[in-house]
Structures are given as structure tokens and as C-alpha cells.
Design goal:
Shape: globular
Mean pLDDT: 88
Number of domains: 4
Strand content: 5-15%
Number of helices: 30
Radius of gyration: 32 Å
Low-confidence stretches: 599-608, 698-703
Oligomer: single chain
Largest sheet: 4 strands, mixed
Length: 792
């Protein structure tokens, strides 16, 4: 048994009281809690040092969170004992460390001479960054001052040779941990824009390459620390990733409303830090001390790039005689030039423009509109430029409506970006599609503004229509173009919603779309391209080959109607499907065929990593969909799309699938199991339950969202569409199909879309007796059954 047992018990008890005060005691706010924890540990460590004789020739130093005075509840203590070759240094260290270990307190520690400390700081970059935060706790102060001064001098002297390694480590960390501003579950410490980036700014300032961060970064740092403090207090352990299920409670503790308010605040803070780091790294690189021949080179010259715009030291800057007061298009010309050249805008240039650029008069000068369109059409380069303008306060001056969507978190799990970033990403995607439309300028503007109405109580498409018209008039667009731009914003969801919730082969569906667009073929063309750009900018897998084919089919039929041509009729069964139907008719037994889903790939075998089409033909009886879907799930096939057809009493279901792991199963094996299920020798429900037990994701790996059912009634077609939104799971389509069949509902068609861990499944329903309206009481029964199936 350790002789130090119980020495640190008073520290543990005091810490517990601070974290969880008793009845009648005040709960400390995050900043006050951190201060109290620092004072508590400082006092205990200093007292312990005095007790064991840690005085002359030795110093106890705090680094890390304790060194910065930013100790959050369950952070490890980072301690360094420096001694001037004292022979009893190891004994002192054991007397200091063991009580902390015995008490279960996390501890990182080292014992070194001053020379060893400097050597470590010179050779180990991570250790050097930690030692820059050193703070004296106990022992000989002069020894600490000597070591601290030597470490900082070594850091400043060696930064030129270590800068590239520092940048590389930073990029690796960003790649591994993602962006705090846009992750649903951000890493507050290690992500891009997180606390480690704040410490990076401190390190660059310690190297005298940049100035100390300003007030905006200080405010962002405080918010990140407060959220991390509450996260530790809630979790009861060291945790850096803010999980969605914890965010509401943390938001309440910080008096910030709900998790969406918290996410918005965190996004703004992280973007402030991230932009500050981008600027700092460029400034630091330019400020690195030059040696040898490099020191003899002439200072970089200013290279003209455009009117009033030059390149200086690898950045876009203003020419010496350029002034925004006399050149109203200057701000946008600087931005467009930066996007065109791929060079960043100098921080000083942004500050100068923010101070001197007047608001553009209405309507905008033609030169300003031309520069805006040049910027919007620049593709991926647009993203960083808009971010720079926004951080510099210029983008909101150009578009005051932007404030409502800035840092606005998405409500839909399929979206990976904040709303403002999504708009910019959509515009970047639209730039690739400008050659497909007659009016690329309107496509770019529509992409930039299509979700501008979000962040308000009303329907964002309706609100956005008015804002789009307002912005179009401010830009000085002709009245016809203003109406088109407003209609693009109003109807930007028309094509994807119709294609995935209605039957594109129904002539009434086509008529409804054509009437909504007043027969405007140009507007249809623009919405077609916008739907693709919007989907691509939403998140992985949203723009699927299935979704593209549905929208393409709908647009072809609508275009034919608009120009007076006969509407293309639904394609008859192809040769393979006709053959499957004939074989089922002759044998009465189901048939299955597997082929690549991509038309161009159907002459070869599907590769294991591309979707495949599974064609299932069997007698068209109640339960055919649930049985086919269940067999596919049994073989670990994830269904992306399900399309149902019936021909001469034979159901021909087409499933677009991909293996959850491994390769596609043999069609003969699928058919064998399908036959077993139909003849009753295989209990499908029991087999699927076993499958889910064996292969379900571990509990706690991700948040399961509550399923939701929406109803859509199409007056034009008379169709009733049930849409299920929720989390994907093994056999979900089978369970929902069983639920629908048990309620006497017949599925006319089904469209199943899997977006990562989420699903959006649409079913066109009729009652078995042919009733299409589905009375309210029938809908309630169906909805309850579907929700129970999704939750089971």
C-alpha cells in the first residue's frame, strides 16, 4: 500500500465541491470555475512542495491548461520539475507525483535539468509549444526565470527552421479533426478554429512574428473554453467532442437558448479563430528572419493584377493610388482578382477597404455587378474569398440580408454546412454548370440566394422570394430578370421535391410543374441546374444517380409540354425485365437478376464499390415489397432506391443497392432465400432480428433521431404520399413495408433515399379497395404503424 495514500484526498474533495455544490451553494459560472480550480491546485501544489522541501535548486512549473490558468474540470495536470543537479530530485518528484496518482488525478510529468528542458524544447515541437505556456508554482523562482527565458529565446531563434513543421502539424490536425464551425459534433480543442489554434496564435506571437490576437479572438477563446468547461462538468470526464445530445443542456447552462443557438455561436467563434490563423500563418511566413543569400534579395515588388489591384508579397493588395471612394467597384474587383489568381487578400487591404469603402448606391454600377458575377463564377476559390470578406465586415455590407443566415446551423442532418457556407458552396458548384444554361448570371445569383430566407419563422422559400427580388432590384437587374431570380428562390425545391415525392410519369405531375412555372422554359432550365448545385453542396450522397435520373426525367417531360411536343411516355419494360416476367409466369417462382446501376457500366460486372441494380420479379401479391426488401437486408445490402412496377400480375421491383461490406451476393443465393421466405421455411422477421443484433452500430456511436412522418396530397394527380424521415437501420424498408401492408395500404410506388445515416423514404399509397384519398383515421393508423416500425 502506498505511503502517500490519502494525502491528496482534500484536493479531490474540494474539487468535487466546486464541480457539484450542495444544496444552497452557488453553482460557479465556467470562467469562475476555471479560476477556482486553478487557485485550488496552485495552493495544494505549493503547499505540498513546501512540505517535501522543494525550495532551493529546484522549481515546480505548470504547463498546459494549468500553466495558462485555463484549467477545465477534468484536464490533466501538466507539471515539470526542474532542478539544478540536485541529487534528491527523484525523491522530491516521487513525493510530489504519487499523492496525485493515488487520488486518481490525471498527470503528465517530467523531471529535467535546465539544459535538458532547453534541449527538449529545441528538438520536440509539441513539447516546445507546451513550455511556452510555463508558469512558476513553487521552488526557486530564479531557476524558473532562467529556464523560461532560455526556452523563449530558443523558440524565437529556431522558428525559421521549425515553421514548416509547425504548419504541417497544424494541417494534419485539421485534416484529422475537421472544422469546429461546420461539424455536427465538433472537437472543441483539436478541430480547425478550436482551442489549439488559439494556442498556435500565442506561439507565433511569442516568436515575435505576429501581434497578440485581438479582442474578437479573445472573445472566441472565452466561448470555446466555457463550452469545454461545461462539457467536462456534464460528462464527468475529459472530453473534447461536443455531442449533439449534450448540446441542449450545455446551451441552457450558458443561457444560450437551445443547441442551435449554441452551434451558431460556436460557428462564429471558430470561424473567427480559423480566419485569424490563416492570416497569422501568412504574416508569420512573411516575417520569418532571412539569412544568407535570402537576406540580400530585394524586397518584393508590386505586380499589377487589375485596375487598382496589385500582388505584393504573395497577397492581393491595393495599388498605392487606389481608393474605394472614387472606385465603387474596387471591393468586388479585389475579391474577384483574389478568386481568379488564387492569392489571399492581404489583411491590411481588407481593413483599409472596411474603413474607406462607401455603400454602393442603388442600383449598383454595372462595373460592380460585373465584378460580382466574376467572383461568383470563380468556383472553389469563391469560398475562401467570401470568408475573408465576411470576416472583414465587407460581405455583410454588400448583402445586408446575409446577417440572418450567417453561422446559422442546419436543421436537417443531411446538411454539413452552416446556411451561409451552404449558399457559397452551392454557388461554387453552380459555376461548373454555367455552360448548361442560357443565363449563367442568373444561375449564379440564384445559387447564392436560394436559402437567403432561412433563419426566420416563415417558409424560407416565400421569404427568400421577396429578398431575392429586393437584391435583384438593388443590383439594377432588368425587371424581367428580377422576376426570374425571385422565382428561382421561390421554387428552388420544386423539381427535387416533385421528382422524389410524386410520380414523374403521371401527366398530371408534369402539368402541375408547368403551371407553377407559368410555362417558362428558361426558368425550368435554371431550376434544373440549381437543383444539382444545391444537392451537391448539401452533403455526401445527396446528389445520387437516382435523384439525377428522376429530375432529368421530370425536366424532359416538362420541357416537352412547354414547347408543345408530346410528353414522352413511360418506358416499357426493357428486355431483361420482360424476360424475368415471362419466366415467373411460366414457373410461378420468383426470379432475380443483378447488374451495375450505371447505364454505361452494364456491359461489365459491377465493382464492389459501385451501386448495383437488383431486379426482383415475383407474383404481385400483398407483401411482395416487404419480402424482397427483407431478403436484401438479410444479405447486408443497403437499399438506396426502390422502384415498383407491375406487369400482367407480376411485380417487377428494382432496387439500387450497395453492400454494407464485402461484395455483392450471388443472385442464386438471393433467389434461394426469397423462395424460402415465400414458402415459409425461413422466418424473415427472426432472421433480420438476429442480423441486427450481430451487426447493428454500437450504442452511443451516433445520435438516433426520432422518426417523423409527413403527408403530401397532390391535387393534380390525386396521389397521397407518405414520407418517412429518420435514422437508417438494417431492415428498415422491410419493417415499414410490413407496417403499410398490415394497414391495408397498397404501395403504388416507392422512392427510398439513404443519406449517410439518415433516410428519406417516400411511398405513394392507395387502400387495397382502390381508395386514393385515405381518410384521416386511416392515415393516423398508418402513421402510427410506420413510426412503431421505424422505432422497433
Amino acid at each position: 500500500m502506498s505511503t502517500t495514500a490519502g494525502i491528496a484526498d482534500d484536493l479531490v474533495r474540494a474539487r468535487a465541491v466546486l464541480l457539484h455544490p450542495g444544496p444552497g451553494q452557488r453553482r460557479l459560472a465556467p470562467e469562475a470555475l476555471r479560476g477556482a480550480l486553478v487557485d485550488l491546485h496552485d495552493f495544494w501544489l505549493a503547499s505540498r512542495a513546501a512540505t517535501i522541501g522543494l525550495t532551493e535548486g529546484v522549481a515546480l512549473i505548470a504547463v498546459g491548461a494549468l500553466g495558462r490558468r485555463e484549467l477545465v474540470p477534468y484536464s490533466d495536470l501538466d507539471l515539470v520539475m526542474v532542478h539544478d543537479r540536485r541529487p534528491d530530485a527523484d525523491r522530491l518528484a516521487e513525493a510530489m507525483w504519487y499523492p496525485l496518482w493515488d487520488a486518481g488525478i490525471g498527470l503528465d510529468h517530467s523531471v529535467r535539468t535546465p539544459g535538458q528542458v532547453v534541449e527538449v524544447a529545441t528538438t520536440d515541437l509539441r513539447a516546445a509549444l507546451g513550455l511556452l505556456e510555463a508558469r512558476h508554482l513553487a521552488g526557486e523562482r530564479a531557476l524558473f526565470d532562467k529556464v523560461n527565458s532560455a526556452v523563449r529565446q530558443s523558440w524565437r531563434a529556431g522558428i525559421r527552421t521549425r515553421f514548416d513543421e509547425l504548419v504541417e502539424l497544424t494541417n494534419v490536425r485539421w485534416e484529422r479533426n475537421g472544422d469546429v464551425a461546420h461539424r455536427v459534433e465538433p472537437d472543441l480543442k483539436n478541430g480547425r478554429g478550436g482551442l489549439r489554434d488559439v494556442y498556435l496564435l500565442d506561439a507565433l506571437a511569442a516568436a515575435q512574428l505576429i501581434d497578440r490576437p485581438g479582442l474578437e479572438v479573445a472573445a472566441a477563446r472565452l466561448l470555446l473554453l466555457d463550452v469545454r468547461t461545461e462539457l467536462h462538468r456534464l460528462a464527468g470526464r475529459n472530453r473534447d467532442v461536443l455531442r449533439a445530445q449534450d448540446a441542449d443542456e450545455i446551451a441552457a447552462q450558458l443561457e444560450m437558448g437551445d443547441r442551435f443557438d449554441l452551434a451558431r455561436a460556436l460557428s462564429g467563434a471558430a470561424r473567427t479563430v480559423g480566419y485569424a490563423v490563416d492570416v497569422a500563418l501568412r504574416a508569420a511566413k512573411a516575417a520569418l528572419p532571412r539569412r544568407g543569400l535570402a537576406a540580400l534579395r530585394r524586397a518584393p515588388v508590386r505586380r499589377p493584377l487589375d485596375e487598382g489591384v496589385v500582388e505584393h508579397n504573395g497577397e492581393v493588395a491595393l495599388a498605392r493610388d487606389a481608393t474605394a471612394a472614387k472606385d465603387p467597384a474596387l471591393v468586388l474587383r479585389v475579391a474577384a482578382t483574389a478568386a481568379r489568381t488564387g492569392l489571399p487578400i492581404a489583411a491590411g487591404t481588407l481593413a483599409r477597404l472596411a474603413d474607406t469603402a462607401p455603400e454602393l448606391r442603388m442600383p449598383w454600377p454595372r462595373a460592380a455587378v460585373a465584378e460580382l458575377l466574376s467572383l461568383l463564377g470563380s468556383g472553389r476559390a469563391l469560398v475562401d474569398v467570401v470568408e475573408a470578406l465576411d470576416r472583414g465586415g465587407l460581405w455583410g455590407r454588400l448583402f445586408p440580408e446575409w446577417g440572418a443566415v450567417r453561422d446559422l446551423p442546419p436543421r436537417d442532418r443531411a446538411h454539413v454546412w452552416t446556411v451561409d457556407r451552404h449558399l457559397v458552396e452551392t454557388c461554387a458548384q453552380a459555376a461548373r454548370l454555367t455552360t448548361r444554361v442560357a443565363r449563367p448570371d442568373l444561375l449564379l445569383l440564384g445559387a447564392l440566394l436560394h436559402d437567403i430566407g432561412k433563419g426566420r419563422e416563415e417558409d424560407h422559400s416565400v421569404v427568400g422570394e421577396g429578398l431575392g427580388a429586393q437584391i435583384g432590384s438593388r443590383l439594377g437587374l432588368p425587371e424581367r430578370d428580377v422576376l426570374t431570380l425571385a422565382a428561382m428562390v421561390r421554387h428552388h425545391l420544386l423539381l427535387p421535391d416533385t421528382a422524389t415525392r410524386r410520380d414523374p410519369e403521371d401527366e398530371a405531375t408534369v402539368t402541375r410543374v408547368v403551371n407553377t412555372l407559368d410555362g417558362d422554359a428558361q426558368l425550368l432550365e435554371l431550376l434544373h441546374a440549381l437543383a444539382e448545385a444545391d444537392s451537391l453542396a448539401t452533403g455526401p450522397g445527396v446528389w445520387s444517380p437516382w435523384k439525377r435520373s428522376l429530375i432529368d426525367q421530370l425536366v424532359r417531360r416538362c420541357r416537352a409540354s412547354m414547347i408543345g411536343e408530346p410528353i414522352p411516355q413511360p418506358e416499357p419494360l426493357d428486355e431483361l425485365r420482360r424476360e424475368l416476367v415471362a419466366r415467373v409466369e411460366s414457373s410461378g417462382r420468383p426470379r432475380i437478376s443483378v447488374r451495375p446501376s450505371t447505364d454505361g457500366a452494364r456491359d461489365r460486372e459491377a465493382s464492389p464499390d459501385e451501386p448495383s441494380e437488383v431486379l426482383v420479379a415475383l407474383p404481385d401479391l400483398p407483401g411482395s415489397l416487404s419480402v424482397a426488401a427483407g431478403v436484401l437486408a438479410l444479405h447486408s445490402l443497403e437499399v438506396h432506391v426502390a422502384e415498383l412496377r407491375s406487369h400482367r400480375g407480376i411485380a417487377v421491383d428494382t432496387f439500387t443497392v450497395s453492400p454494407r461490406f464485402g461484395r455483392m451476393p450471388d443472385p442464386a443465393v438471393l433467389r434461394e432465400d426469397l423462395i424460402k421466405v415465400l414458402d415459409g421455411s425461413l422466418d424473415l422477421a427472426e432472421a433480420l432480428a438476429r442480423k441486427e443484433r450481430d451487426y447493428a452500430r454500437p450504442v452511443g456511436l451516433e445520435e438516433r433521431v426520432p422518426p417523423r412522418v409527413l403527408w403530401f396530397d397532390d391535387e393534380a394527380t390525386g396521389a397521397v404520399v407518405l414520407e418517412l424521415r429518420g435514422s437508417d437501420r438494417i431492415g428498415l424498408l422491410h419493417r415499414v413495408a410490413v407496417a403499410l401492408e398490415s394497414c391495408g395500404a397498397d404501395v403504388r410506388w416507392a422512392k427510398v433515399e439513404t443519406l449517410g445515416s439518415s433516410v428519406v423514404d417516400s411511398f405513394c399509397l392507395v387502400e387495397v379497395d382502390g381508395e386514393t384519398s385515405l381518410p384521416r383515421q386511416v392515415r393516423r393508423k398508418i402513421e402510427q404503424a410506420v413510426l412503431e416500425a421505424a422505432n422497433s
